[in-house]
Amino acid sequence: xxxxxxxxxxxxxxxxxTPWENWGARVAFDKGANHDYRGAKYSFDELVAFRRDEGLExxxxxxxxxxxxxxxxxxxxKLAEAFSEAAPDVAVIVGNDQRELFSDQNTxxxxxxxGQTIENRPRTPEQIAQLPPGIAVAERGHAPxxxxxxxxxxxxxxxxxxxxxxEDFDVSTMNQLPxxxxxxxxxPHAYGFVYRQIMRDLPPPTVPIILNTxxxxxxxxxxxxxxxxxxxxxxxxxxKDEARVAVIASGGLSHFVIDEALDKLIxxxxxxxxxxxxxxxxxxFYQSGTSEIKNWLPVAxxxxxxxxxxxxxxxxxxxxxxxxxxxxMGFVLWNAQ
Length: 337
Hints:
8-stranded mixed sheet, single chain, Protocatechuate 4,5-dioxygenase, Chain B, 13 strands, alpha/beta
């Protein structure tokens, strides 16, 4: 029987890998986009007007950017140290694809990777030249400077697939990464960030699980993500090998528009094991980047079922504009009693 010895929840947004002095570079993109916020869509100027009473212009000073960047670095270091100290035999990473492996032609709701190897290669100069403002500078956070190939875990991956199918989750499967859409060369950034920042480029064998949080019409509901986590936790524990397993959620929290009230509700519900509070969040709040909170839902559910206690390492709302755009960063550990 396997043992779940550690849980981690981490944001993975580009701002975490961008020098704080450059956080404003992404605002040019923000100003030209429509943004999901609390079930509606707003232009940049509409968000500025809608949130004018929140004093968000006071959240984007250079002093605060520097303080918050440092806080994120400290939190990530703590997560990496916890992972190193736990020394798991294998890790399961729950994240999402952002049009890196999949396209409109084929977007599975749940996918499990069970291949021998996982590639993570840096973008070519041609690919970098096509990136929107403020993204290329963050490349170092999720892709190594040279080609890397990490170990998968086919045996555990296959066991999870079979177990999930037996409990009515009809998952898609991969034993090698698709060539993708040309946005990255290998694994999506949700996973590359974990390999680089949490596992420090020395990962144990891993099983990536990919959720479609972003793209209608087949986004799993919050209820389905929680149910998935419970089944996943049972499957891990029922694996025949006596392995020590870490389970990691990658993504979130609220972005590309920060919603501190929503984030605090979510984190409190994780800490208290309050499933009803999680299910009470309207589904249309889980859109755009904020949808990545759904990567955390399965992990929080299986940790709660397994009796692991949650520690909030830090919550850092990293605003970059007076419209409230940016990324709220969350860092969590679940430890065995």
